[in-house]
Amino acid sequence: MLIPRVPGEPPVPGEPKVPQEPPVPVQLLDFIRNGKKFLIAGHKEPDGDCVGSQIALASVLRRMGKEAVLCSAGPFKRVEIEKYEELFSCAPDVDGSENVIIVDCSSPDRTGDLEIRLGGLPTAIIDHHEVNQHQPFGEYAAYYVDAHAPATTYMIMKLVSVLGLELTGEEAEILFFGLSTDTGFFRHVDETGARTFEAAADLIHKGANPKLCFRAIYGGKSLDSRRLMGHVLVKAESFFDGKLVVSSEEYEETSRFGLEGRDSDALYQLLQSVAGVEAIVLIRQETPEKCTVGLRSLSWVDVRVIAESFGGGGHKNAAGFALEATISELKQKILKSFENVF
After folding, report:
1. Whole-prediction pTM value?
2. How far is residue 173's CA from residue 313's CA, in Å, rounded to a whole number?
3. What is the CATH number of the domain that holds 315?
4. Which domain holds residue 60?
5. Backbone torsions φ then ψ of 99, nearest 5 degrees
6. In which residue ranges of the chain is pLDDT below 70?
7. CA distances (Å), 278 to each of 37, 97, 239, 252, 296, in order?
């Protein structure tokens, strides 16, 4: 039985067009082979893909006889990555002899408080986001970007293979965790995503446990997280004939339930299941003066373009930004930005 196509989603004639994978740059391989000490950095407010990429890469470098220091500005808000926080330094000692590898982002400001410490050091980038190369650290020693890769952890897998190494069971486990996080446990994989499942199968062969991984990502939530979700769902509003849903989290709710009460992935899942919805906007009042905004789309809506218009970024189907504003101020501006979409 064929799976019916989502109404409004354009048909895909013929064979799916699988994006061409860029090769791992020779400059990156040389950068790794010739370096002795590495600072492995990621973006602030890390997620599973960022943390998984960092931990696996550091493990591989150490097996190659290198020194590797895991760095993150944090905070480790997500329940599923809290246990890894102790592995990271938020203020690494730097004497100028280090090389830097930044994973899962390529803008210096995305590393948060690490930016001032890492600036000026030889730097390589490994990222799967379509990024604007503004405010660079300088001339990158290597720049490995694949905007069509399902996750940065997928790119780390490919890098390890090109380096001629086999993954350990522990490395496979943390890479599967990151791959599962960024694909929504494979919910976001479309007809071009065979390589994602091939990578997943390879990681399982090497010791990753999907059952335990699913439990780690989606289990262990607090009762407050369910209550907060209820508050946000009650405020959900529909616009453009049901194609856009917008909701918000007030500062009072953030203060009451805490950051650990958030469960964005489950919230987006629930709202995306509403008939006719094409895009979702979630506005959070982080402080009385500042909001963060998460945007998601099911298929054809490119929310990255919307996020970039506000100074943010991300993927076609998942993006975000932060702005000095209140929920009511931002809401009207965001609705205006969607007028040309719907």
Report:
1. 0.81
2. 29
3. 3.10.310.30
4. 26-216
5. -105, 150
6. 1-16, 131-138, 258-262
7. 46, 49, 11, 29, 8
